[in-house]
Protein: Chitooligosaccharide deacetylase
Organism: Allorhizobium terrae
Amino acid sequence: MSEERVKQRLDALANQGQQVTFWLRDDDAIEPTPALETLLHLASRYQIPLTLAVIPQNTGAALVERVVQEPALCVSVHGWSHVNHATPPEKKQELGLQRPAAMVLNELKAGFDKLRDLYGAHFLPMLVPPWNRIDARLLPELSALGFSALSVFGREKVPAPMRLLNTHVDVMDWRGTGGGRDADALFAEIADWLAADAEPLNALGLLTHHLVHDAAVWRFLERLFQLTHNHPGCRWMSARAILATA
């Protein structure tokens, strides 16, 4: 079982006096929903710090009122409107140069300012591009907007124009069923990232999308959190804490 492979690797790390860091990013939040409540309760039960990538354009007081009840929760900037401006066969992208760069950057600045003002101490100045894509020509401009970090998907590439804190394991089967991926495949992927001969990551990022989770995703998350909660070979950290210590 792939789950057992993950446990064996964590046990080996613990025996060596080492730990791997996990972090959790959930995308597309706008307002409180039953699905978000399920995620918040699950994360709270297992003391998993959560970073919500919030879409600025349509969020407001309702989500703020819920977020302030979660002291360990971070809010990051998920583009502006999560609208695709690419045309086929291009992959979906909001933060590309299909529009003038100034227009894209102005939207990002508006999103940054709005979420900073709404969420206060919960706000993390990290950009999470919708669909995990941003045109590389925009990256040198992000610091001037106030961003201190960028989070996309896949192994971090260096050198980079700013701090990177990526996600590496996506629970959703976007190209297939549209539901949750097979739990054994997900555990196998995590085990591969943790393999002794793999290039170590600063932090292994798990990517979720609460609005489209099915029962398979919730079952997988419960199993993963049960396995890793208080295991001496790993620790769950907030994005803020990881960026502050790395």
Observations:
- The chain is about 35% helix and 15% strand.
